Amino acid sequence: MRKAYIDAIGMYVPPKVVTNKDLEGMMDTSDQWIQERSGIQERHHVDGEGTTDLALKATEEALEKAGMTAEDVDHIIFSTMANDYFFPGGGPIMTKRLGIPGTPAVDIRMACSGFLYGLSIAKAFIESGAYENILLITSEVQSVAMDFSTAGRDTAVLFGDGAAAVVLKATNEDRGLLSVITHSDGRYAEDLMLRTPSTLDNPFLTHELLDKGYGRVVMNGRNVFKHAIIKFPQVIREALEAAGVEKDKVKLVIPHQANLRITEAVAKRLDLEMYKVVYSNIHKYGNTTSASIPLAIYEAMTEGKIQRGDYIVVASFGAGFTWGASVIKW
Ligand code: COA
Prior knowledge:
Blueprint: E1 3-12, E2 17-19, H1 20-24, H2 31-38, E3 42-44, H3 51-66, E4 75-79, H4 90-97, E5 105-108, H5 114-127, E6 133-140, H6 153-156, E7 162-171, E8 176-184, E9 192-194, H7 207-211, E10 217-219, H8 221-243, E11 250-255, H9 260-269, H10 282-285, H11 292-302, E12 311-318, E13 322-329
Parallel strand pairs: 4-5, 4-6, 11-12
Antiparallel strand pairs: 1-7, 2-3, 6-7, 8-13, 9-10, 12-13
Helix pairs in contact: 3-4, 8-9
């Protein structure tokens, strides 16, 4: 049966590194608090680069590794929470930046689950025979929407900027995306959001709205935590069942890098050995929203932790709330 598989992957993080010590100089926080609560030591922040700047660098690497040129891309799926412009989205902009005008492109804004939703669309596109080569780009610039005063410290310390791109291709071999499960629940929309610009206001952008802090990301961290540690294991079990793969066969679980404490709690609930079966690189990048899973796949591959034929599970939870998981035979 025709399947979609990940053929190549590229990544890019902006060069500017912001350590926990650097944050201590901006707000009332400490390296110890951040490490204990999240496992994060440093993250990368843009310094003038925009979302499609990061995306382009990650894409160039992915295309080179796939042995493709941009002209070989049949369809772009572009995932971000913060685009270059309010509209149009980054997808069409990437056709300009890659020099492939006319290529179809779809934007998705599914927060930390953007990669999972991207996989589900790519899987359907490829399995239906509609397309052969899909470019799934995740690119996130969150630092510009954070409040780096003490008022925003519970959120600002967690997020980082970065991008990753994957090339998905069609195959008839015994490999690829065996299952992709996605969910959403808007009852918790206000628990992690960026309110302005909003059509609830007319005009949708005013100094008053910005003065209220509506132009910054806000989060109910405790509620996010509470739901994440339930939904991650649930959806991983769902994806394993849909793929017909036993948990013991899984070589590596790569969860969205939200927070090391969440990852550890999920490993415990699934009875998985943390640091052997569950991958984490959050200490270097923080939470890079939808880029975090492909970024982690990239690094796990570089470290030789993923080989052809391995069963890999990727899973996400984030704003919306949205969550999902996929079982991939590499
Ligand atoms: N530095 C120092 N102190 C901080 C701080 C920071 N960066 N951020 C918050 N605090 C303070 C709080 O103000 C509070 O102080 P108080 O007791 O004087 O009121 C104290 O630390 C404890 O705050 P609390 O919110 O109870 O901490 P917590 O143990 O719930 O940890 C999070 C906060 C955000 C780390 C935690 O809730 C979490 O990980 N949530 C999930 C977030 C996430 O992963 N989001 C992305 C999902 S995609």
